[in-house]
Design brief:
Belongs to the UPF0111 family. It holds the Pfam family PhoU_div. This is Pit accessory protein. The protein is mostly helical and about 210 residues long. It has one domain: Methane Monooxygenase Hydroxylase, Chain G, domain 1. It contains six helices and no strands.
């Protein structure tokens, strides 16, 4: 870690941690959706929307702090990239839940639960990693594991697509379900973007 003579704005660390904790909340709502009756999904979607709005607020707070800070803990573009990628995760998770409700999906295809389990694990790892930005220590295993999870998510996604296009689903149902599993895959990609940004920051600060 480079020695710095100038003070740095430290509230960014707390805001990144809060944003990541909110993503854990979102992942738990995704898990809740899996076991919920169709009648309960609208209420879960409402709570997910509230979590997504909280995520937006956290992102805007980071941007505001970035614009008003003369000295930042690491490069401004990396702060912007990290905040944006964290926000993307919540956006994709909220979109997936919303689509399930809007499309009146009665039963999610087998394999979606594996997608969501991967997202839940990535959310936990991301929340655990954010406090370590203060010292840039003990982060290597985090980005390695998240990249591994993203590769796992890719495999699950491909299997889901093969399942959807096996001829057993109505064409319109395929379109609906494919959009949902694609959005969940985008959430996995966004977790990888966060991990890659953290790795970039750590390399620069080493």
């Amino acid at each position: 870690m480079r020695f710095r003579l100038t003070p740095r704005e430290t509230s960014f660390y707390d805001m990144f941690a809060a944003s990541a904790d909110n993503i854990v909340t979102g992942s738990k709502l995704l898990m809740e959706l899996l076991g919920a009756d169709t009648s309960a999904r609208a209420e879960i979607a409402e709570r997910m929307r509230a979590a997504e709005h909280a995520g937006d607020d956290a992102t805007h707070a980071i941007f505001h702090q970035l614009n008003s800070s003369f000295i930042t803990p690491f490069d401004r573009e990396d702060i912007y990239s990290l905040a944006s990628s964290l926000d993307d995760i919540m956006d994709f998770m909220e979109e997936a839940v919303d689509l399930v409700v809007l499309y009146n999906v009665e039963e999610l295809p087998k394999g979606v639960e594996q997608q969501i389990e991967v997202l839940a694990r990535a959310a936990e790892l991301t929340a655990e990693a954010m406090p370590h930005l203060r010292t840039m220590e003990n982060l290597t295993e985090y980005w390695i594991e998240v990249n591994r999870l993203e590769n796992q998510a890719d495999q699950i996604h491909r299997k889901l697509l093969a399942h959807l296009f096996n001829g057993k689903f109505d064409a319109m149902e395929v379109l609906k379900l494919k959009q949902i599993v694609d959005v969940l895959e985008e959430a996995a990609d966004a977790f990888e973007h966060v991990a890659n940004t953290v790795e970039t920051i750590a390399v620069k600060e080493s």
